Known about the structure:
Oligomer: single chain
Number of helices: 20
Largest sheet: none
Order of helices and strands: HHHHHHHHHHHHHHHHHHHH
Amino acid sequence: MALFSLSPKAIEAHPGFNRWLIPPAALAIHLCIGQAYAFSVFRIPMTRILGITESTNEDWARTQVFWAFTLGIVFLGLSAAVMGRWVERVGPRVSGLVAAVCWSSGFLIGALAISIHNIWLFYLGYGVIGGCGLGIGYITPVSTLIKWFPDHRGLATGLAIMGFGGGAMIASPLSEILMKLFSSPESTGVAQSFLVMGLVYLVVMTCGAFGFRLPQTHPVPETVAEPNADELQKAKADPTFLDPSEAIKTKVFYLLWIILFLNVTAGIGILDVASPMIQEMFPGKVNAATAAGFVGLLSLFNLAGRFAWSTASDRLGRRFTYGIFLSFGPLLYLLLPVAGKMGSVPLFVVCLAIIMSMYGGCFAAIPAYLSDVFGTRYVSAIHGRLLTAWSCAGIAGPALINFLYQWALKGPHALASPAQAYDSAIWFIGTVLFLGFLANLWVKTLVQPLVVVAPTKAHSKITFAPAKITFAPAKITFAPAKAPWVWLALAWAAVGVPLIWGVTMTIQKTIPLFLTG
């Protein structure tokens, strides 16, 4: 009976179920796994596990610590690509529970690894097992929300993706509070913080998983259907779409892969070192507490950018929007070292906040860009293949930043102070990112033969039959006599209150950044 209650059939919603109870469950998952973007808060404390107040020769080096974050992003992309069909088959409750166990286990194993000071165990826990929880947790709510909101798929998936982008706003100040609470002359408090966060995430994500329901008759979008032999043959001659096997043979697919790879490499590399970077570039002006707020601010703009840029791309066009990312973005990167030399914390923060909004917008707009290029029929499958760029960028971004940082400090032209050690890395990223702008220009010439030019024909290809996509009012709203609106209010409060708290803490902690010269 317990196992049956986890099956897709068992979690079909009863008549009168309010579909707006599903987004809070999705947010519960994504607000937890969004902690990955706040990992930099632990970067410096984790290099002082033994020395407590300062690093010793026996402590982990920063080049060792960053690999945990990198592995987490790598396994996020790999697990999302590999486990996508499994998630569809077992349903959101099972996959949500698996994501909760993997993600929380990553923290619990990480706490043990920190306690015994074993970096390889930490890689296994937070990087590999936790990374699998990231990937499974990332795709579970998106798939479920599409089923419930076929009429507002952008809004529904945006709610979930927003949670992933905004999770660091909660995790960053929470991590700082926990480390202060557990710190002592014998401990930095990192291990205890990991333990508490792992248990909290287990509870919250489990509640989110049990909050999922499936519509009794939910639509199965053609975009996720496995193409048969006849469809594949038609696809080769149909100008309105390409099937995945044909799409990945085109040059435009690899141009888009490069564009996503470069954009994410730059953004994720900065996110990995955000907290120590601002402290070292502005010594005496930014402390650890303010830096934690800075990480939360980046998460806020990451969150906002996912809505703002994806919405703007509907009017501006995807190609033009990415042109902004890949032209204006490099200029902002090149301004960061200038802000450091000027000692202007506000300029540095504003530039990096806009960069992070573009980073979030890059993720939000890429599925629509793929739809423009390859049609909508198989966009989900093509998107899954394109996300391998995220995994590769998860390695390249942090590795590049940390290598150039160490080279600047210990290379043949070593700098006397770490304040300028990030300059070469930032300049390099800004310059290389401009290559994506050139790739984006090339996409313009390659995509035209694949664009749907006959709206009526395209509509017949991608539109669901009304019986498949329309929910009867009784299935998406509570009947007045049954309306337990208190549950709806409590569900949204459960995710809304922590999110508002994270935003409030972020604003409070980042105000000093704008008051600093």
